[in-house]
Amino acid sequence: MSDVCTSRPTTTRHLAGTEPELIAASALDLAGCDRLEIVVGLYEHERAGLRFETWPPKLQNDIATLIAQWIERNPTRVLRAQTCAVQERACVMIVHHAAKG
Question: Tell me, what's the pLDDT at 33?
Fold first, then answer.
């Protein structure tokens, strides 16, 4: 199952960021996880690398806020992993989540 949040560039990006957590290198066990997919377009003048930290700061804040809001609305879920990608003029963040317990 997958939730998809899609937005286009706007001038109203105003959201709070979060600190990334470092995890020891190992295989991810995503069995039983669902996904929240967030896709945000880039303005023509913006650039983004493969790492979330290289994405435009306002875009990072938008995505972090969307994730925080989703967590608030879904208290029975726990985040297992986050993956990201850049495709043409869009940044993609995938949050892998599962039921608590």
Answer: 92
